[in-house]
Every structure is written in structure tokens, then in C-alpha cells.
Amino acid sequence: MTDRAVRIAAHAKVNLFLRVLAKEHDGFHAVETLLCLVDLADELVLSRGGAPGNVALEVDGPDTGPAEENLAVRAASMVLAATNNRFGVELRLTKRIPVAAGLGGGSSDAAAALLGTNALAGGVVPLHELLQFAARLGSDVPFFLTRTPLAIGWGRGERLLALPPLPACPGLLVSSPTGIRTTDAYGWVDEVRADEGRRGAVALTLDALSTWGDVARMAGNDFESAVFGHRPELHDAFEALAETRPLTCRLSGSGATIFGLFRSERDRDDARSVLGRRHGALTPVWTLSAPPMGPEPLPSE
Predict the structure, then answer these.
(1) What is the pTM of this model?
(2) Can you list the domains of the chain with their CATH numbers?
């Protein structure tokens, strides 16, 4: 018996480090990144309904653009097509992750839609096929699909190495009200490198990551100098957060969120008090130390 409705959390991520490698022949950049889930999450409720093969979307929260371009809608459509469009799906998305903020909200919603729609179909699509769908949807979607709290990603994010999770760590997100388009951020990186005569970073040789101190020592983000040049208010937020003495302070993804990780919850809360709301919306978070739950069946109405 298959579920008629399920609920699943779509968690945000931060990039503990992010190296943008040289642009490849197809015009895309490869990356090397350490991805970490945090407890900030959108919520997606999926239910069977509507015409077979149809996906309807209702959003509670910030505007996510046209439904037909929404990654969660596209993800659900992929699973329906793989199961011969035997039923339709209604999506109710509660957005809590800021849009275009470098936190992976859209990609996480897509992964949740893949898992949730497959649950409605009785789990007939194997994981390896879902991972292929995820790679087609976007670079972070495979990471979110695996539900692993900590992983290294290469290429366009489709090559992953899950790592043992670290203990939960208190963090603080500082999000600008104005998002950054990923394509713009990559263009800014290319501009900086053209001016400096560089092709891109060299991939890192990774040592053991057994403590948050290890992470702090290797943390970095190649987008920072380029993004800060175009968005000086983010540089100001970075400097202000760094002055609160976190373990590490970085831009997440291609922006527009700065995050800090702290030694204690008290240190995090003190930093929150010092910053106020001068540099953007402040969101206290914890990193995840265990995989989040998959789709949860909902009782029939």
C-alpha cells in the first residue's frame, strides 16, 4: 500500500570551504567543496491529486518564481514520468530558507520532491536513478538527496564522499535581503581571474577532518573576493561577524549569506546581540550531527 501524502524537511546547507576550479570546455566551472547541513529547513508536503502527470505547487513564503521553473516541480515531474504518470502530485512548500542566499534552498526542495514523490509511488524508482535526476537538476541536489550531514563534493557536485558527521555546532547566518544569481557570481569570479591572469584554484589535498578546529583551519570560499567587490555590504557583514571571534566565518555558496560557527551557544548568542540587524536578517542554527528523516507518511483526511 502506497502513501497518499507525505511530509519531508528540506534542510539548508553551508559551504565550509568552496574552491572554484578552472572553467571547462563546456563553459561550466568544476568545484571542490565541503558541504554541511544545518537545521534551518523548508517543509514540503506532497499528496496525490490532480490529473495524472500534473504537478501543482502552492508556496507559503517568499516568491520562488514561475511554478514551471521551480526545481521541486521539475523534480516531481521527473519521478512521475519515470513511473508512467500514473497519478498527479500537489506540492505545498513552506519556505523558511532565504531565496538566492547561497544556502541551497531550491536544490534542497528539489531533492525533497524527488524523495517525496517516489514515496508516493511506492519507492519504485531506485536510488541510483534518483541520483541521475538530481545531477540533472543542479549541482547541490545530489548532496541533499543523500541526506548525509557532511560531505565533500567535486565536479558539479555529482561526485560525493560522505564524511563522518561532527558534533552539532552552533552557528549564525547573516542573510542580505537582496539575493545573488549564481550565474552572476561565477561571472564575477571570471572577471577577477582575468584581471589577475589566473585560471582557477588547484584542488586541495584533504587531511582528516575530525574536529571543528580542522574545518576552521582549511575553511575558505573562492567567491568571496569577487562577490565582496560587487556587494560591499556583504564584506561589511563578514568583517562584523569575524570581529565576534567565531571558529570560522565565511560566505556560503555564491552568497548572499555570511555564516559563523561558534565554540558555544553562548558565544553565538553574544554575537547575535552585538550584530543586531544592521547587516541583514540573523538566523541562529545548529549543524546536523545525524541524517535528517526521510518522507514521513501523513494520515488520510
Answers:
(1) 0.93
(2) 5-162 (3.30.230.10), 170-286 (3.30.70.890)
